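It is worth pausing here to work through a concrete case rather than discussing structure prediction in the abstract. The textbook approach is simple: state the sequence, then state the predicted structure, then interpret. We follow exactly that order.
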Amino acid sequence: MNKTIAVIRGDGIGPEIVGEAIKVLDAVAAKFGHSFTYQEAPMGGCAIDQFGVPLPDSSLETCLKADSVLLGAVGGPKWDAQPSANRPERGLLKLRASMGLYTNVRPARMFQDLAAACPLRSDIAAKGIDFVVVRELIGGVYFGDHSTTDENGEKKAVDIMSYTEHEVRRVAHVAFQMARKRRRRVTSVDKANVLDTSRLWRKVVTEVAQEYPDVELLHMYVDNAAMQIVRDPSQFDVLVTENLFGDILSDEASQITGSIGMIPSSSMGEGTNGLYEPIHGSAPDIAGQNKANPIGTILAAAMMLRYSFDMPTEADAIEHAVDETLKSGHRCGDILQSGGTLVTCTEMGSQIVSRI
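Step two, the predicted structure:
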């Protein structure tokens, strides 16, 4: 099978971690008889430097025509002085909207071999951490109107958060369908005691739940959810929430697993052309030093094989290779506190390839 993958290497450590993911994909292709064609699509700060904008039309076209998109990371202090409409992150928001990627899925799973790296008490970690955050991705305050004006002699900033029923309904269906393949429990996170958008969110999610009588639905305020994630993460199966809350909670969830460098994510819409990336940032402080952990990106590539290319056996091969590499004691710097042998970014990639 031949598939075309748009590659956004991005900024900071992005080129390093994407390079290791491609190395792993090539190993999978060789073993299972596939062919992956990679097409470069500059985006982020590097695109601003080269083209003056964070997402050139040519890069967007490449992504829209590809079978899927693999992304490293974008942004960094170098571009902080850019106008807000031209910051590296705006390229990512435009790409998500243009591809119609309304759902972001971020698993939070603690590898048992990294239990010592979990910042929670050992008795809490011993219960296990294995849940998924389903985040609405192209609505809410990130895509609302933004303005800064002068009023009564001072600056006033306003950001608009809005949701329609259909935006809530479609992401709720994703959460319930995913729960059916897991432990059949959905926790919907909102702030319905304060926000009109959350009251609409809760109403629509409750309506959708009636179509899934085999799945349990719980509602939880976002502040309580943030507390419960560190108090007892084992209680969660699938969390579904809006854009801003999901952005914050999924980062919290990733950290309790031991390292943000271990967590992949997928962004999907109606079709199979998805966007796959690690959830961490560009880490400019270690860029170019061969220190970055590529596992989050490698596992994102596995998600791409599973969800966009319908290659579950190949995805399993990558995930198994990651498990075996961790069991063998190889560690990048961010997970070294769990014990083991320090390896570089490229060495970690090679260790995983050797186990494909």
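Step three, interpretation. The two ends are 18 Å apart (CA to CA). DSSP finds twelve helices and 14 strands in the chain.
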